């Protein structure tokens, strides 16, 4: 059996599959922290951590665990992988773990159970597969490594050899370029080069720290303003906090997208200046998933900005999901990071309050929603995404609002995804490049 010290550093994270490598239940409880107690109990029985004999967990115990998983967690396919991977009285470790990993990969419920981060799910698959290949049995069945996906964003003064250097650096490590987007800005006289490259690589051939050093050297060679590399399967998800008011449609859409694994970010907190009762859908959702939520009522004389800054100081960016308060320049300077807002109108038209009514009274034939970065000037930050829908003389003010709300949800979700996937670059005075 594998020893604790050999595996814990390698399989670090909150994934229940990893519990099979631990002898003591007390130690493993921390590793299984992403599961509810019922699921964790089922896993203890299913994987029989504390009763391992020389050849593996007993089949009967595995079957009991599988049934418990079905009853308590609805993870039937995972339970079957645990309970049914036996051959006679011996559990083949690598088959069991690989089977569990594949079951988890296709199970949407696991995404909702496993903590406040999509990265823990990715670590589960990588860890389970890596663990399965540490078994001395059937090692010939194990692939040498699993390809990962990386993103590199680059910005510098335009000059000869940039693309060649980036390509050669990737090829030298036996990695493969999947896509390259390039833009050169001539607005301010001196041309500026921007690029976003996606590539696949073998982490055994190109470790994360070596990759960082390779791209840092390219940045120094070309005196880059930006040379950013990200590996989504390894790097932690960006942390965001959401500010909302009384309207729920954008907030609810973000929460459900996060729950389904479509939002590549960690929600650190939800802050609202309007009260929501304990039995409302939003509060029940946040409590169920362990997402902190704060009610900070505001007045004209007290926007509670200092308290908000304290609550969100450890986040990577903020999202205003129809937060109907204007953030002061003092708040923007104190926070000092990007803030993404959704405006329920097609900017630069219809700024400020009541854009539905402004558009309706103007007799427009297209209505829209705009996601943008927040700046000192109200509704004047760099645009990220815009979406439109057609309206006619038959539409009422109410139907304007209904159509717009659907656009707002989609537009904000896209902007957040672009931001987390390193697709947005701010440039010139008030513009954005969005590599899509």
TrEMBL record:
Gene3D superfamilies in the record: 3.30.70.260, Formyl transferase, N-terminal domain
Record GO biological process: one-carbon metabolic process
Keywords associated with the record: Hydrolase, One-carbon metabolism, Signal
Tree of life domain: Eukaryota
Phosphoprotein keyword on record: no
Domain ACT: 151-236
Residues in the signal sequence: 1-25
PANTHER family linked: FORMYLTETRAHYDROFOLATE DEFORMYLASE, FORMYLTETRAHYDROFOLATE DEFORMYLASE 2, MITOCHONDRIAL
Name the record gives this protein: ACT domain-containing protein
């Amino acid at each position: 059996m594998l020893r604790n010290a050999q595996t814990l550093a390698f399989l670090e994270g909150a994934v229940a599959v990893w519990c099979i490598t631990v002898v003591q239940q007390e130690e493993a409880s921390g590793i299984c922290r992403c599961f509810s107690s019922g699921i964790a109990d089922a896993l203890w029985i299913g994987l029989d951590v504390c009763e391992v004999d020389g050849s593996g967990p007993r089949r009967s115990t595995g079957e009991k665990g599988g049934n418990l998983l079905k009853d308590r967690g609805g993870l039937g396919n995972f339970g079957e992988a645990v309970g049914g991977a036996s051959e006679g009285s011996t559990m083949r470790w690598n088959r069991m773990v690989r089977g569990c990993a594949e079951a988890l990969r296709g199970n949407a419920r696991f995404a909702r159970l496993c903590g406040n981060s999509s990265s823990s799910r990715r670590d589960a698959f990588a860890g389970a597969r890596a663990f399965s290949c540490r078994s001395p049995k059937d090692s010939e069945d194990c692939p040498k490594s699993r390809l990962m996906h990386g993103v590199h964003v680059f910005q510098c003064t335009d000059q000869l050899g940039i693309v060649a250097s980036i390509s050669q650096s990737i090829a030298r490590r036996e990695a493969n370029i999947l896509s390259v987007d390039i833009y050169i800005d001539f607005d301010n006289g001196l041309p500026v080069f921007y690029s976003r490259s996606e590539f696949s690589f073998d982490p055994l051939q190109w470790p994360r720290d070596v990759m960082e050093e390779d791209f840092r050297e390219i940045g120094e060679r070309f005196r880059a303003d930006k040379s950013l590399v990200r590996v989504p399967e390894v790097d932690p998800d960006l942390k965001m906090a959401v500010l909302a008011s009384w309207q729920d449609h954008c907030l609810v859409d973000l929460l459900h997208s996060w729950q389904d694994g479509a939002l590549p970010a960690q929600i650190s907190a939800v802050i609202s200046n309007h009260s929501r009762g304990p039995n409302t859908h939003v509060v029940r959702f946040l409590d169920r998933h362990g997402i902190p939520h704060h009610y900070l009522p505001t007045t004209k004389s007290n926007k509670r900005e200092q308290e908000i800054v304290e609550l969100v100081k450890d986040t990577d960016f903020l999202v205003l999901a129809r937060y109907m308060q204007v953030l002061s320049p003092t708040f923007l300077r104190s926070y000092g990071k990007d803030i993404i807002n959704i405006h329920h109108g097609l900017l630069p038209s219809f700024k400020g309050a009541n854009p539905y009514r402004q558009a309706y009274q103007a007799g427009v034939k297209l209505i829209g929603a705009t996601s943008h970065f927040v700046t000192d000037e109200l509704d004047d930050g760099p645009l990220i995404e815009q979406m439109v829908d057609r309206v006619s003389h038959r539409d009422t003010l109410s139907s304007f609002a209904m159509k717009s709300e659907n656009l707002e949800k989609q537009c904000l979700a896209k902007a957040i995804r672009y931001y987390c996937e390193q697709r947005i670059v701010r440039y010139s005075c008030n513009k954005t490049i969005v590599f899509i």
